[in-house]
């Protein structure tokens, strides 16, 4: 399994290469306008062979970052808008085989991590497209239990940062960092580090 760094031009190129479907996860933590993922996917809506679906957190709809009039305009232009009960990491899933994960949740200025045919891609698709609000029921209780340091660890997991790098950036011993990761994975009932980071984003636990 490998994810490689990609700049904004590569993100745009990957989206433009879609053959059947583009799924956009927009966390609502930065402006909708000027985002490379939205602009590139919007450019595909005239192609009848490509479905473009955008997933936005219900709680952020109508905010300055996700104004309803702009979402409505995108919908009129062919983008399917779906509300999710929690926040997802800023990412794009192309043809259910390519995952592009932004390194910065507000925008794509810091580039992205991109991976092809990753083993957890089906799980990401299922989690993103699930519409059962009950999935968000664990969020309030877990949110109360998380410390600021826990949230930092979860953000590192969502970004796919290596343990050694994350521990160094946070000023923690590697063993301490890994113990925290194991505890958080257990709390979120996650089977992998990336899944823990993803679920944290989905349930709004990264803030």
UniProtKB/TrEMBL annotation:
Xref: InterPro entries: Sig_transdc_resp-reg_C-effctor, Tscrpt_reg_LuxR_C, WH-like_DNA-bd_sf
Sequence ranges assigned to domain HTH luxR-type in this UniProt record: 143-200
Protein name, per record: HTH luxR-type domain-containing protein
Organism the protein comes from: Streptomyces antimicrobicus
Lineage, broadest ranks: Bacteria, Bacillati, Actinomycetota, Actinomycetes, Kitasatosporales
């Amino acid at each position: 399994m490998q994810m490689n760094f990609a700049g904004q031009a590569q993100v745009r190129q990957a989206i433009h290469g879609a053959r059947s479907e583009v799924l956009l996860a927009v966390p609502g933590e930065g402006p909708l306008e000027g985002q490379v993922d939205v602009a590139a996917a919007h450019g595909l809506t005239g192609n009848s062979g490509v479905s473009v679906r955008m997933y936005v957190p219900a709680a952020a709809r109508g905010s300055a970052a996700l104004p309803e009039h702009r979402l409505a305009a995108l919908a009129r232009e062919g983008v399917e808008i779906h509300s999710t009960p929690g926040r997802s990491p800023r990412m794009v899933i192309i043809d259910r085989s390519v995952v592009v994960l932004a390194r910065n949740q507000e925008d794509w200025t810091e580039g992205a991590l991109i991976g092809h045919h990753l083993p957890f891609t089906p799980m990401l698709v299922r989690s993103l497209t699930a519409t059962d609000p009950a999935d968000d029921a664990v969020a309030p209780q877990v949110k109360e239990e998380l410390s600021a340091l826990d949230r930092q660890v979860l953000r590192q997991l969502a970004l796919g940062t290596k343990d050694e790098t994350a521990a160094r950036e946070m000023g923690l011993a590697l063993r301490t960092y890994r113990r925290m990761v194991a505890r958080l994975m257990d709390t979120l009932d996650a089977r992998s580090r990336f899944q823990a980071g993803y679920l944290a984003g989905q349930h709004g636990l990264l803030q």
